[in-house]
Design a protein that fits this description.
This protein is α/β, with parallel strands linked by helices. It contains 9 helices and 10 strands. The structure holds S-adenosylmethionine.
Length: about 220
C-alpha cells in the first residue's frame, strides 16, 4: 500500500521509518511519501496558516494551502481516502486500523496550532480520525500512530502470527491479550504460573484463553 503524509515537519518521520515494523515493510509492502505544505503553498514566504475569522487565539491551517498541496501531489483527486487527523474525528481502534490497512492508498493530513480550516475537513478530506480523547500539539504524532499501527498489519512486518493474536484482535474477540512471562522462572519470590512451565500445550492454550480480558 501507499501512504502519503502531508505535514510541516517531514524530517520528524525519520525516526519512525528507521524502526520496525515500518522499516521492515518500507520499499516493499509500504511506500511512504512525505509532503511539506510549505513546498507548494501559494502564499509568500512559505506561509501556511492564518488568523481565525471571528478572532481568538492561535493560527488555522489554510484551505488553499492544503488544496494546493493535494493538487501538486495528485494533479487529479487523491486516489484513496484522505484522512484529516483531528481530536474531533472518528476514534482510532484496532478495527479501524485493520480497515485502513486493507486500503491500497491512504492520505494523512496533519495540522498544528488551532487546527484545520473546517473546509479542509468538509471538502478535501473523506474521513477524520482521532487517536484519543486528548489534545496533542500537532497531527504528526497521530499520523505516526496511524502509520505504525497500519504498517504492522502488512505482510512481512511482524513474525508470522504475531499480529493475529494480540490485544484488540478479532481472534481474541477484541479483548486484552493474556500475560507473558520469560526467564527467570522465579525472581524475588515472584513465580511464573505453573501451567506455562508444564509443557502441556492444551492446558496452556486453555489458560491463555481464560486470561484474555474482555474490553
Ligand atoms: C492543538 S490541536 C488543535 C485542537 C483543536 N483546536 C481542538 O480544540 O479540537 C492541533 C492539531 O493537532 C492534531 N491533533 C491533536 N490532537 C489530536 C488527536 N487526539 N487526534 C488526532 N489529531 C490530533 C490535529 O491535526 C490538530 O488539528
Amino acid at each position: 500500500m501507499r501512504i502519503d503524509v502531508f505535514t510541516l515537519v517531514p524530517h520528524a518521520y525519520a525516526w519512525l521509518t528507521e524502526q520496525r515494523p515500518v522499516a521492515a515493510v518500507l520499499g516493499g509492502e509500504l511506500e511512504l511519501r512525505l509532503f511539506n505544505y510549505r513546498d507548494t503553498t501559494p502564499l509568500r514566504s512559505g506561509q501556511v496558516d492564518d488568523e481565525p475569522y471571528g478572532g481568538g487565539a492561535g493560527m488555522v491551517l489554510r484551505v488553499d494551502v492544503v488544496a494546493a498541496a493535494l493538487e501538486a501531489a495528485y494533479e487529479a483527486d487523491p486516489p484513496g481516502r484522505v484522512i484529516a487527523l483531528t481530536p474531533k474525528g472518528r476514534p482510532l481502534t484496532q478495527a479501524v486500523v485493520e480497515e485502513l490497512a486493507a486500503e491500497p492508498e491512504l492520505t494523512l493530513l496533519s495540522a498544528r496550532f488551532e487546527g484545520f480550516d473546517e473546509r479542509i475537513v468538509e471538502h478535501l478530506a473523506t474521513d477524520s480520525i482521532s487517536v484519543g480523547p486528548y489534545v496533542l500539539s500537532n497531527g504528526d504524532l497521530p499520523a505516526m500512530i496511524v502509520l505504525d499501527s497500519v504498517a504492522r498489519r502488512l505482510p512481512g512486518a511482524l513474525a508470522e502470527g504475531s499480529a493475529e493474536l494480540e490485544s484488540f484482535s478479532a481472534e481474541l474477540d477484541r479483548g486484552l491479550e493474556y500475560p507473558h512471562y520469560t526467564r527467570p522462572a522465579e525472581f524475588r519470590g515472584w513465580t511464573v504460573p505453573e501451567v506455562l512451565l508444564s509443557g502441556d500445550h492444551r492446558r496452556i492454550e486453555t489458560w491463555r484463553r481464560e486470561m484474555v480480558k474482555v474490553t
